[in-house]
Design goal:
Two copies of one chain form a homodimer. With 445 residues, chain A is of the alpha/beta class. The first copy, chain A, is built from 14 helices and 15 strands. The two termini of chain A are 29 Å apart. At the A-B interface, helix 9 and helix 11 of A face helix 9 and helix 11 of B.
Chain lengths: 445, 445
């Protein structure tokens, strides 16, 4: 990665949501000014990063002025009121183009808002634009899409990760303080980790997926990417329809079960050490995974069938509109037999029971978010601890188990390896999100 | 069918459960005597009908004597106490051989009771023996099994129907007053209709399927076969863990939506007329099915994948232990792609909504149970209204929609066509079972 350099950052690089919300309410800044900062940052940085597929400057400024008027009138819609937000381009946003990262939808303009977008707007958020997604969200690398790869703000030669690559790059580059993504096998957490920001995948179904173009319906989650765990919490609660408010207090220091990632995938020693070191001083126990070997087959057994069911007619009618790698993967997915899909659901039940067992012994589970830092754009094999391994499954291997289980999972940045960010992943029981966020805030802080 | 003759009948041919229960409590008969009658009938008739795979004379008589002692001591376990019952041979019964109709399980002795059997025993029922099932319950004809075909008491050259063929034949021949079966696409209702008795498939999950060898888990139901709807109700309530007691009274005469069966399958005109005529004098409206054309693909898309997932290792390791037709069907089922399975579940959701809509307009839906009366054992094509049609899908075509929907469905005998029985099928909302049984009692009466 020869082009490494100190990257530029936009206005929001040093900002958090609470600070922005306070300044908006103090009159120290207006939403229109914040939105102009976001638009400036996109103009200045996105040539290189390709984080955005489209920007709605006019619509955003109009929403911002409306938010300013509402706030001035004392009509406070909550913590995202007046905040510029970016939305992944597989999420429908009324009146805006939504391409799914695909030539199939090059001219598609959404006629209605996805439920998560409706909730953002109801909370007064200002939607600045749509972020680059891996084509149909079908890939963890973020470098195959009709509009080209999104790139890593820490090094534009490095992949952003995906599929919510543009959302992660936009936050990491300080273009926006918050972006919405989706996560089927890690598509929020992977790019957040590779780009050095926080990313949260809620419990399955906690944020409705209506109006999100499906990848694999039983694995798809709507999630958020922001600079800090606290900002993830704020945005998550808006999207989940929960009241804003202080965290439920925990009953004592959280106990953590450390999952040595080698049980799931060959993991770079430095990456593993950084993640493990971030927990030093905490109550950590080693966890033995009872049943991890089959998780790749389980994940693929579920996803292949569900993904091809979404795309069968497009593959038959207009295969040339897919990029070759995605087309090839879909054609392979078509061949997964139905009985393997059924078996995968049976395995999923067993894995859920195993995860429930682990989370009855530990408040949180912890492991690296990815087994290695960002590979180069387009790279498909990488050397890890002296072995060549697959980039694609490698990226998914530590995050997808929590999609299969449907439990909340957060990534927080814990340092850099050879100049590129590394994430620590934390997993909790549904309902223990506040404990997760509070613990992570201590780590990330 | 050259061998047609006036069939012999066993002791229970003219008996109903309430009458038997009354006589047991009056001391007019003992459970030991009833059990001896059942064993006599099996001995006398089963050479011809092959309804039973195994009979547990000793165990049954022991249970009967215990029931007699309990009843004499005033320890009344309810309406099945002391009643001889037969159980389909894919349902585990502790200490008895359970073959699944397959050479794979020729020597399998159950180590525990299925939950439905546990409930029968807890209700004091006397389990007489295990009834012939189509091999692994995988067929509606009842004529492929390791132990040979079960036969129709109305004409032993005619098929019993299946897969619970032995259960239906045993009740129709008066060997027992009650038999338990399973119903994945009609496997209780089809043989009940072809043999001229009543058969009830409860709502999905209303009777636990634990301990029942699976055919297709999301379609499998445990059901009952008896002479009358009232007897079906009595047995159903025991199996479902509901209190015995008088039916919940209806708010007025039930309204019925008549589904012309031609929308689902070419139906013999005489069969259709008999079923329709049984409703004369009732409040009947014609029903238009919105979405019936794809139901066969939906059913097979679900069943193929689920069935092969159960049998994959057996097909790989010991294909020679299957009968050829069942092996061939399983090998075809293995090729159903996963995405078709996913689509089938999507179609299922649409069909469920359609059925819910129909049942919001009508208390009951009615149609024939099968499109034709019993074909000959081994027959796979049949002429209906001058057209050659498939026997297998024909038998399933009118019953399987209610497995896909998971709603209760009952068949009652409504006469004979060319000397063989014809069934009327009635479908209701889960929760409206009493209304269904009461209406059917009026028909069958």
């Amino acid at each position: 990665m020869s082009s490494r350099k100190t990257p530029e950052r936009g206005y929001f690089a040093g900002q958090d949501l609470q600070g922005l919300a306070d300044r908006l309410r103090e009159g120290a800044v207006t939403s229109a000014e914040l939105t102009a900062h976001a638009l400036d940052a996109v103009r200045g940085l996105d040539q290189e990063l390709n984080a955005f597929v489209s920007v709605d400057a006019e619509g955003a400024l109009e929403s911002a002025r409306k938010a300013d008027a509402e706030l001035a009138a004392g009509d406070d819609l909550g913590p995202l009121h007046g905040i510029p937000v970016a939305v992944k381009d597989i999420i429908e946003t009324a009146g805006m183009r939504t391409t799914m990262g695909s030539a199939h939808f090059a001219d598609h303009v959404s006629t209605a808002d996805a439920e998560c977008v409706r909730r953002l707007r109801a909370g007064g958020a200002v939607i600045v634009g749509k972020t680059t997604t891996h084509e149909f969200a079908y890939g963890p690398t973020g470098d195959r899409a009709a509009g080209g790869a999104s790139r890593n703000p820490h090094d534009p030669a490095a992949m952003s990760g995906g599929s919510s690559g543009g959302s992660a790059a936009a936050v990491a580059a300080g273009m926006v303080p918050l972006a919405v993504g989706t996560d089927t096998g890690g598509s929020v957490r992977i790019p957040a980790a590779l780009c050095g920001v926080a990313g949260f995948k809620p419990a399955y179904g906690a944020v409705p997926a209506d109006g999100v173009f499906p990848l694999s319906r039983s694995l798809d989650h709507v999630g958020v990417i922001a600079r800090t765990p606290r900002d993830c919490r704020t945005a998550y609660r808006v999207l989940a329809g929960l009241r804003a408010g202080p965290p439920r207090s925990a009953g004592g220091p959280a106990t953590v079960g450390w999952i040595a990632p080698g049980a799931l995938f060959e993991t770079d020693r430095e990456v593993e050490e950084l993640a493990r070191a971030a927990l030093s001083g905490r109550a950590v126990q080693e966890v033995e995974l009872g049943d991890a070997a089959g998780l790749r087959q389980t994940y693929n057994g579920i996803q292949d069938a569900e993904a091809y069911a979404v795309h069968a007619e497009r593959v038959a009618d207009a295969p040339e509109l897919f990029t070759p790698e995605v087309l090839e993967r879909l054609q392979a997915a078509a061949r997964t037999p139905g009985w393997r899909h059924v078996r995968a659901f049976e395995e999923r039940q067993r894995w859920r029971a195993e995860v429930a067992r682990l989370l009855s012994h530990h408040d949180l589970l912890a492991l690296p978010t990815t087994p290695f830092a960002a590979p180069a754009v387009g790279q498909r094999e990488i050397e890890v601890n002296g072995r060549e391994v697959e980039v694609r499954w490698g990226l998914l291997s530590l995050t997808s188990p929590w999609n299969i289980a449907g439990v909340p999972a957060l990534t927080v940045p814990v340092g850099t390896s050879r100049g590129l960010p590394v994430g620590l992943q934390l997993v909790c029981r549904p309902g223990d999100e506040d404990l997760l966020f509070a613990f992570a805030a201590g780590i990330a802080g």
